[in-house]
Design a protein that fits this description.
By secondary structure, this protein is an all-alpha fold. It is built from two helices and no strands.
Amino acid sequence: MKPVSRRTLDWIYSVLLLAVVLLSWGYVIYASTVAARRQLSKEYPDILGMNL
């Protein structure tokens, strides 16, 4: 195998870190939305109707 330059490794690590950060933020936003909808449906069952 051909050796990989330091600059290429830095770029790969940066892209992987960015992907992990974006996925984790996506999960946090999704979980917050699900929790908020669940809480709203408990407090106000008639507003959201049968859309859940």
